[in-house]
Design a protein that fits this description.
Blueprint: H1 3-9, H2 13-35, H3 43-52, H4 57-84, H5 90-110, H6 117-126, H7 128-131, H8 135-159, H9 165-188, H10 197-226, H11 236-255, H12 262-292, H13 300-318, H14 327-367
Length: about 375
Amino acid sequence: MSLISRLRLRPSAAQLRLGVRVTVAAVVTFVLARLLDIPLAGLWAVLTAVVVTQTSIGGSLKVTIEYLSGTLGGAIYAGAIAALVPHDTEATLLLVLALAIGPLALLAAMNPHFRIGPFTAAIVLLGSAATHTGPLGSAFYRVLEVALGAATGLAVSLLVLPARAHVLVTEAAGRMLELLAQALPELFAGFSRPLEINELRRIQDRIGAALAQVDAIAAEARRERMTYLASEPDPAPLWRTLLRLRHDLIIVGRAAAMPLPPRFLERLAAPLASFAQAAAEYLRLSGAALKARRDPPSLAAVEKGLEAHAAAIEAARRERLSQDLPAETVERIFALGFALDQMCRNFEDLARCVAEFAQSANARLLKGDAAPK
């Protein structure tokens, strides 16, 4: 195995903390299940605790709500069907199984909170033989096991090496900003030399995957704020700003699909290189500031680069350099100017988001609270 492969297999601190929490949740739930004499040695309680214990507290809350609502609804409905419809033969058991799972499967398709409902119904109807109880007893134990596992998993998430989603979302956003900073010079290189389609796709796919990760963690952070487990800024404005920055890079990538005409390249090469360098550095510093909860960096270098590009475009317009160019080429050149202007506006929004997270951290320090974990 190569050195790079070994480094990729090395777990991060967050992954190690999750491993510890899952282990503690499983062991504690097993002990509680044995003390309560739950059938099958608390199998479903332990499995529930393992599933509920997520990377962040917000993620654990989401899975707990889904598991409890789906289990409670599925157990009550399946228990009622089993009690009302006799099923002494195999044929009637098949009928009861279809009556129990069919509506729950439709409900699960309509509302993801009830995804566990059909699974619970199957356990209630078919698991009574293993627990040596009737359908109602099976439903009772199923709800008890899931409630025990969910409560234990959530408690462990809150008490054992807790990881709050509002911290994870700033780290994920910082990683995405670093990707944007790396991508900018690569994309701007397309104005002077042809870029491969696969290279452009690779850049955009990596950024898209990073944005999706920020979105998922931001949803968990919002859930923490709704339950008063965190008094941090709403991550929604930050996510929207990252989304707009990604769109800016998509426009730049399309404009850079072909090199600029020589007459324009001579005028724009230096301003574009200066802007790309300043913008990449701003994104990199913003990502570091966001993760460290510091004030945002200065936009002066980026604004200076934008002004130099605008001046070069104006000079080219006065000299009518675009007079004999195809309409598609002219559109790409002016679309680039629009993208750079929008990017600067989105940088201002990014600065406000970074400043908001920094102010929240400063407020915690003034109150004497510990730094967020």
